[in-house]
Amino acid sequence: MSSIKPRVKVPKEVSIDEVVEIKTLIRHPMHSGRMKDMDGQTIPRHIINSFSAKFNGKEVFQMDLEPSISTNPYIVFQFKAKESGKFDFEWIDDNGEIYSISKEMAVS
Amino acid sequence: MRLNKLRKISRRNAMLIIAGFTGTAILPSISFAQSNQALNRINEITNGLGAAESDIWLDLPEIAENGNQVKVSFEIETPMTDTDHIKTVYILADGNPSPNVAKFSFTPDMGSCSATTRIRLSKTQNVYLLAENNNGQFLMTNAQVKVTIGGCGG
After folding, report:
1. Which residues of chain B does A60 touch, with a Cβ-Cβ cutoff of 8 Å?
2. Alpha-carbon Rg of chain A, whole angstroms?
3. What is the ipTM score, two decimals?
4. B80 contact A CB<8A
5. Which H or E run contains B53?
6. Is B9's pLDDT higher than 70?
């Protein structure tokens, strides 16, 4: 499972006070606990239940995900650039598995 | 002959118009009857205060062919300063097995209160957006989505 690699699009260079769009995508089945497999057995719930974005160590955005979020969660949000730094993105699923990725952003 | 033909068409058209009108007139009442779970949840979150219907940009398709992947975007006009910003946004669905869809926590660092994600909708229903600002005031809006093939695997 830890082979899941999230994809994040962060602009590399931005000007100060610019509001930039950050796009994230992670491959995950998001089993809602209501779907059935080929044999008619219910697949147990297994979803990513939390996503967070930190900038220079400070949490700037967080999202709680429910079973009503689609397979391969796609999350887009905005951020106002004030200083150069590093984003840390983190996804946590029901099994306690943590998927993370970091991205640098230069502000001029 | 010509007149006869004309009348036939107009009568058929009239029937269609009537059918169309009754269709649209009945639909909202059905969705209203089922809207309890999302509205109940809004009541719970707001501690019975309720939320003011407000002008929030909530983008959802009018018709979703595949309920497994329905794109939802929203944007709320706010200065996003420390003293005046939107803190939390909830997306709620009244026709899904559970009304909770997502909860977003915003901070002033984001500069704007907007986000996009993809959700599952099990059938035709209303999707609600409830937002709370830093002063504890609530805003809401909703949109109806007609779903052709339901998601959720129910």
Report:
1. 107, 109-110
2. 16
3. 0.92
4. yes
5. strand B52-53
6. no
